[in-house]
Amino acid sequence: MFDIILIGIAVVALIFIIWSLLKKFPLLTNVNVDSLPDIRVQRQKEAILKSRMLRGWLELWNKAKGLTAPTQDKVNNIFKQYYNKLKSVEKDLKRRGHQQLSSAVDKSQAVEEMITEAKQLVNSEEYKKAEDILLDAVSVEQHNVDAYKLLAEVYRCRKEFVQAKETLEYLLKITHNADAGIYSSLANIARERGNLKQAEEDYIKSISLSDDNYLHFLSLAEVYLDLEEEDKAFKIAQRALVLSPNNPKILDFLINISIIMQDKELAQQYLERLKEVNPDNNKILSFIERIDNLK
């Protein structure tokens, strides 16, 4: 009988908290958002809702602590279930808040601010926070390519390769398979997962869409080197050098692969160019030694 009373109290408390939130939510959303400077005001409103919800939960929890010990586990389970329901209500309120906001302010500006904030979080390696913000961004603007690209990068950084790949494949659909950067990102993921043939295929697709980006050529050359196809790697790296003639990274690659191919003359030729464009390169002494050891 006592358990039934406890459950009844918990149910009434839950209904009261949800009713209080839903009653007060329109008072916040009825603010004239046309006059608000940016999306941060919306976040302040959500923080107010969240604060009120948590205060209500803490008050309820403190009262529950006074209950007798034999029924404590049951009460804990009940409140855990109801707390999860409250979190679900909170997420729904947040979603509704974004819908309210996106209908009243410029979507592109709002999403641009979110992406900027997410980039800063990625740089700080706060990937979970960045993911949450980017999910908010795509809920406001469902086909924002930049937001999805950064979201895929977040998943890649977290080694969640399946999610990253699925995000990029969705991007291919909305860009009609015409974005070289997406194929390059897919290739990077395939390479990290050790699928070099898939990486080769995706890099080739990225080059077919953008043949003036030296990074795509250099990345493909590195894949060929990993595949022990030195001739292909050398030729592709030379094409990268045409696009970026004084790039130390490409010269570094060409020196290294020339040494692997035992071509002392070519290695020396590219080394001289590296000395000209980047005389302080800390690999120069090592390259000199390796070249001298060639027959």
- Low-confidence stretches are 21-41
Structural class: mainly alpha
Radius of gyration computed on alpha carbons: 29 Å
Mean of residue pLDDT values: 78
What share of the residues does DSSP label as strand, in percent? under 5%
What is the N-to-C succession of helices and strands? HHHHHHHHHHHHHH
**Assembly status:** single chain
Brief overview, please?
Helices cover 79% and strands 0% of the residues.
Summary keywords:
mainly alpha, 79% helix, elongated
Note down, in words, how this protein is organized.
This protein is mainly α. The longest helix is centred in the first third of the chain and has 31 residues, at 72-102. The protein has helices at 2-29, 40-64, 72-102, 107-123, 127-140, 145-157, 161-174, 180-192, 196-209, 214-226, 230-243, 248-260, 264-277, 284-292. The model is unreliable at 21-41 (pLDDT under 50). Helix 1 packs parallel to helix 3 (72-102), helix 5 (127-140) packs antiparallel against helix 6 and helix 8 (180-192) packs antiparallel against helix 9 (196-209). Among the domains are: 2-102; 245-295. It is elongated, with a radius of gyration of 29 Å. It has 14 helices and no strands.
